[in-house]
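Summary for the steering committee. The consortium agreed at its last meeting that each partner would contribute one worked example illustrating the joint modelling workflow. Our contribution is presented below. We chose a case with several input lines so that the handling of multiple components could be demonstrated. No manual editing was applied between input and output; the record is shown as generated.
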Amino acid sequence: MSANGPARSLENGLREARVLVCAGTGGVGKTTIAASLAIQAAMLGRRTLVLTIDPARRLADALGLDSLDSKPAPVDLVRLAPGHVDLEDASLEAMMLDAKPTFDRLIFRLTSDEAERDRILDNRIYQHLSSALAGSAEYAAMEQVHELVHSHRYDLIVVDTPPSDHALDFLRAPRRLREFLESRFVHTLVRPAMSASRIGFRLFGRPLHRMLGLLERIAGVGFLDDLSEFLSAIDGLSQGFRERATRVEEVLLGKDTGFVLISSANQGANQSTIEFMSELETFRVPLIAVVVNRIRPWPLDRSPTLFLEGCTDEALARDEARIAEAFGQREDASEAEGDAHRVSQAILDYAHICEAELRTVEALADHVARTRLRCLAVPELPGDVDRMDGLLAIGSVLRPGSEPARRIGEEERGP
Amino acid sequence: MTTATRSLLDYRLIVVTGKGGTGKTVVSSQLAEAARRAGRRVLLAETATTESIAPLFESNPRPLGYQGRELRPGLHALHIDPHEALADYARIQIGLGAVTDRILQTETFQQLLEAAPGWRELIILGKIWHLEQKKDASGRPLYDLLIVDAPATGHGLTFLDVPRVVQHAVRAGPLSRHASWVEALVHDHDRTLMLPVTLPEDLPVLETKELIDRARSDIDIGVDRIIVNRMPSRRSSDAASDVATLPADLDLECLPPVSMMKTLLEHSARRDDLAFEQRERVARLCSMPVVDLPFQARGFTGDSGWTDDVDWIIAPPRWPGESTTEVGHEAHS
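What follows is the complete predicted structure of the assembly.
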């Protein structure tokens, strides 16, 4: 339908994908965008589930739910937005991701022997790998998505990912663990079934011995004991781990999955977004759109840059004098001058911010264009976006076939 | 509720924490510059994977590297890369020679290291401890103030908690001993302060509350104020009410028509109001006074930005509402 090919547009994502993953750095409004997209998909007649992480619980309020928990709850769209014909047959459910200890859950699922389970859960290295290192919240999300996709209860699942500084922790987590479990080293240690003690390690040749000695001096006495215990305990499980990690990757990288990157118009977010993109490429993740959220509206026809160029010191001085004169009818002269100056400075500040935002967004759009994708701009709304009307307003910008979604770089920024 | 808070300049170690995007690095740099100007000998350490401090001070920055360098007189900055710090540690603390370097670089060792809990954090903190101990020729501490731009992940708290965890987990040996020294420094409320940086927005405020709750309950590190970065002024809302009194047909040369100025300033003012609400909220939720850093509408770069503005950071913290503080906004054009 578009020059970008059928699989790589937000329109097609909303119509055809089974999973839409909303990723992006913290504070860009991911949760809000995820909810807006889910509502739009529901309006297109797809049975949709939005999976969210929202510590503020505002989304639950916006969706008219007392609370969100880890069970899907139906959203009563008709009651929340009366008068919207599109919503009458829409089916939307929402649930909160359970981002709590997930490797633990996995261990519970994979082990039947209680003693073995406790041995793993208490192991220091397990605890470390499962939380600090491995991005388990992200993994949790993907585990749940995997299960929900296979339940076939939904046509589309929209996933809000946890705010993370590293874009793809949720991809890296299973992969890293799998790679670790498959490493030659672990393999050698685990295979001979003799590694459950330090003696096992000692049987290796001198170089390895020396290496382990150094490791123990860095990581502490007891590290090797813990490691060998962890490895032998997990030996029986590694097959299960590997299979699950693979399946999670399938969900994420499959042809029915689309990633939507959310960014905002500040430079920091922009930088992370560019880093995200290159990571997504490395992992061959199917990116379908980049959304730049909360761009300040600029109401003039000419760009902020042109506007600022027009504001020479002389022209500004004349305008300020006119404004002061208009004020002057009710105030004393010096105060009026000060107030007039404040007005012009506030306007210039605003223009400077818009100019900086625009420059940032254009740089991002250029970068995005190289991947033949579109950057979609969502203007900042005056009111609280985390209410149904806010979600609908944002959705209408992103909705298939709607024109308000400005394609940055394709046209000049208008009102 | 109001406790007399010390000046930031009276601490020895300040760990600047906050989620990515809050401006933690700029705040750390600003604090370092303010302290340097106040005559302190400052060490500024960045710990993120990629360096970003040097560009705030120089227009053609060279990387700082692990050894670091003098960015300004009295301000030494370095980038602590955990792998380099580990090699350093192995050489100095454990006393192993050239063979160590080779081992440290082997793939197997790297893989095993990945499994070792918290080594990165511990090694970085260990390095900071080591720098804190440094003396000059006359036996006086080499640095008066050490500022750490903490890693953004896990609120930077995992970072501070590691020595305690390691100490409990590692039963004996040099590491346990070193961890206990580092832990003592982290818990020393007289010398060490955690300085959380937040933005006046919903999510960062909630995350800051979480961070401070955990710092109080789990880590036992001193916290006495919150830095609220990018605080707007009240200029837009004052200007908006002024513009409302202007005749709609006022003829202007370069500024937008009155109605448009009104829309634009009102939009801005609404946004600013939200920021003031969030600032009050973070102080209330955390029972802690705040320090405002003004939003730089005209952008911020080290070269132009380090003028007189750096002292905002060392101003005494205030309770929002105490008296509505105007943040200075005389932007430099």
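The CA atoms of residues 324 and 338 of chain A lie 8 Å apart. Chain A has two domains: 10-181+231-298+359-407, 304-357.
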